Amino acid sequence: MKRTRFYECHKALGARMIDFFGWEMPVEYGGLIHEHLAVRTRAGLFDVSHMGEIIVQGRDALAFVQHLTPNDASRLAINQVQYSALITPQGTFVDDMLVYRLAGDRFFLVVNAANADKDFAWIVGHQAGFSVELDNASDSYSQLALQGPAAEKILQPLTDIPLAGMKFFWSGAGKVAGLECLVSRTGYTGEDGFEIYTTSPDPRVLWDEIMARGKGEGLLPIGLGARDTLRLEAKLMLYGNDIDETTTVLEADLRWIVKFNKGGFLGKEALERQLAEGIRRKLCGFELVDRGIPRPHYPVYAGGEAVGPVTSGTFSPFLKRSIGLTYLPVGLAAEGTEIEIGIREKRARAKVVPTPFYRRPFLSK
Q1: Above pLDDT 70, what percent of the chain?
Q2: How far apart are CA 58 and CA 131, in angstroms?
Q3: pTM for the whole thing?
Q4: Which CATH class is domain 52-136?
Q5: Residues of each domain in the chain carrying CATH 3.30.1360.120
Q6: d(Cα 360, Cα 138) in Å, to the nearest integer?
């Protein structure tokens, strides 16, 4: 298995390590619920160096990113960040990702760990006709995510980047703990926080200095287990569960990332056709009325008939209730609709609820 450059930091803290798509990663340190609540109320530090980083640069960089993605990258100012996707001509997902505009002709794409090589091959396969240089720089980068209400207070003394004025989905370059880094106000938890990228061959000082600075703020190291429950509360997509090459952007309730008026892009015609005809299913949130925990792949029933599986589900440590996501026929997608979840040999009652399940209380930044 691959190991990140922070592997020794995790072992020193007694992390329980697992195989995550070929990476030996920490799933938890001292308990998932404890870690989850630390992020919601104080701060948590994640090693997310397994994520993929792809650089697109050159004369046609903007035109190429516009061709590949449904969101409008021309709206990005230098150092601004955008949630977007790589989609097929059928309007389904190759992957979801973040798009950073680092210069007029330079874009930085952050893709999912399991998809980095596949995504790069897809991008290269559509390069013809565009004057661009492509670099799968994933092996060069290490990435930490510092998330939670105390994130700014912890990080600012360690960096020369002014964080207070950095809005959500913006970034800046500078030094953190003496290392050259790219820092963005982004994350996968639904909380305030920052993602920190560096190409340093030995970035462990970042982990050590952030953990030391955060000790008085209740900062904890966080594993993949709490990362998953945090992102589900915020209804952030997980590729392979909630979205994949069988689900369209419109079905995934991500209409807001599709800018039909920006010009042509891969999948536009399919999505326009689906928009005109109307989607037949939609990704919906639900919570259990009965006791139980909905797990991915558990069957979902409506009117006694199976309508699909749970795509993501858990007991929410912060909200103290069982929640999940599933694709439902649009006629069943209204808030309050009663459904059932097959849990072992029983069916537990559930109802459709608004999403995200959790929304951070400081969206005014």
Answers
A1: 99
A2: 6
A3: 0.96
A4: alpha beta
A5: 7-49+141-233
A6: 30
